[in-house]
Design brief:
The chain has five helices and three strands. Helix 2 runs antiparallel to helix 3, helix 3 packs antiparallel against helix 4 and helix 4 runs antiparallel to helix 5. The chain has a domain of about 80 residues. The protein is mainly alpha-helical and about 160 residues long. A hairpin with a 4-residue loop joins strand 1 and strand 2. Helices cover about 50% and strands about 10% of the residues.
């Protein structure tokens, strides 16, 4: 069947599908690095890690004090890193609007995964003295300082649940 003979709705469908394929292919392509993207093998941005550690410590202590403000700091710092850090920015903005502590912990998990994926993808290391831990109960990572586990997902109820990577 030639192009001129195709029914209009079928032709529209083909055009729509073509556009969708182009958009989907672009969405799957890796984000280009920017001049602010850390070099592979370097340390993760302290502008993200420092407020993140404060959030982690607060949640481990069953508190939400400062979480919204620190999430805002992370969003600002990650936005400066450009497109590769967009998931961090989005997750931080969501965390900045949490409802209760359980919601904060859930959104903290999304942020932690975004940071972990970013660090792994760019082969970045945590700053000195910062370790990555993993909670098997929620299957999510987190970063913290010190050698004693302080699980932010369960706080004082299960503070030592997890292991360092």
């Amino acid at each position: 069947m030639r192009h001129e003979q195709m029914p209009r709705n079928l032709l529209s469908c083909f055009r729509g599908c073509s556009i969708l394929l182009v958009v989907a292919a672009a969405a799957c392509a890796p984000a280009p690095q920017t001049s602010n993207t850390p070099a592979a093998g370097g340390a993760m941005s302290t502008g993200i890690v420092e407020p993140y550690l404060k959030i982690s410590a607060a949640l481990a202590d069953d508190s939400t004090e400062g979480v919204k403000a620190h999430a805002g700091e992370i969003a600002t710092a990650s936005a400066a890193l450009g497109a590769p850090a967009m998931k961090i920015d989005t997750a931080a903005l969501q965390l900045a609007s949490f409802g209760d502590i359980e919601d904060a912990r859930t959104k903290f998990g999304v942020l932690s995964e975004a940071i972990d994926t970013y660090m792994t993808g760019l082969k970045l290391t945590p700053p000195e003295g910062v370790k990555v831990a993993f909670c098997p109960m929620v299957s999510k990572p987190w970063m913290q300082q010190g050698d004693t586990l302080a699980n932010p997902y369960y706080g004082k109820d299960m503070l030592s649940c997890g292991s360092f990577r």
